[in-house]
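Go through this one:
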Amino acid sequence: MTLPFEVWFFFEVVLNGLFTGTMYSLVALGFVLIFKASGVFNFAQGIMVLFAALNFVGFIEMGLHPLLAGAITIAIMIALAYAVEGLVLRHLVNQAPIILFMSTIGIAFFLEGFGEFIWGGDVHALDVGIPDGAWFVGDMMIQQFDVSQAVIAAVLVGVLAAFFTYTRIGRALRAVADDHQAALSVGIPLNQIWVIVWAVAGMVALVAGIIWGARLGVQFSLSIIALKALPVLILGGFTSVPGAIIGGLIIGTGEKLAEIYGAPAFESLVEATTGVDSISFGGVEEWFAYVLAMIFLFFRPQGLFGDRIIERV
C-alpha cells in the first residue's frame, strides 16, 4: 500500500529532527562530561567547538593531511586542558560555583579572541569527505550527510560509554562525580581527573566542530549554535550522558515539528479566533528549545535523567 505524500513528509520532518538532535547532543556531551567530574558548568564548551574546528580547518588550509591536522588539534585541546587546570581550576578549588562559572566565561572570551587572532574571522569551508548526496524512500528524502553524522555521534557515544564503564580512568571519573571528598580519600587525584575530562571534552568538541563546520562552514556563529546544548542539558539532566542524547533528540525533533506544523496551526487558530490574518509565527525553530526548557524548569528542574533534588531542613 502506497502511503500519502503527507505521511512521507511527516516522517521526513521527524527524521531530520532526529538527525539535528544528534548534533545538539554532541555538544551537550562536552558539558555533561565536565559537569559530572568537576561540578563546573563550562560555559566555554560552545567556544571549544569553534576553537577546535578553527584549528582543524586552519591546518588543512596550510596543506596538512586531515589526519595530521586532527592529531595536532587533539594535542592542542589536551594542552588546553592542562592550561585550564593549571592556570584556573587549581586556584579556584572549593570556591563558590558562581566563581567557577564566571571563570569559564573568561575562558570562552579568551578562546574566541585567540582563535580569531590566529585564524582570522572569515568563514572557512570544510570538506572532510562526508557524502552529501541523498537517498529516496518512497516520497521521503534522506540526506547522506545526516546519516553519516548520526552514525559518527552514535559511535562516539558508544566509545564514551565503554570508557566510563570498563576503564580504570572511567571508574575514577564516576567516583569523582559521585563524591569529590570520598574520591580524594581513596587516592584519586582530582587535578589529573580534571585534566582528563577537559581533554575528553575537547575531543568531543573537535568531532562536533568538524561535523557542524562541514555542514555550515567553520564560522564564529558556531558558538551561538552550540548554545542549543543548554536546553538539551535542562531536558536530559546536567549529569546524564544518556540524558544528553535523548534531550538532543527531543529538542531536534520538537523544533522541526513546531516549525512545520505548530506555527501554521497556531496562525490558523489566531485567525479563526480574532479574524486577523496578518500575524506570522515564523522562526519558531529558533526559540522553541528555550521555551520547552523553561517549562521543564518549572516542573522538573533536574531534567528527565538527573538526580532528584531533595532538600532537608
Summary: The chain has a mean pLDDT of 81. The CA atoms of residues 80 and 307 lie 30 Å apart. The two ends are 63 Å apart (CA to CA). DSSP finds twelve helices and two strands in the chain.
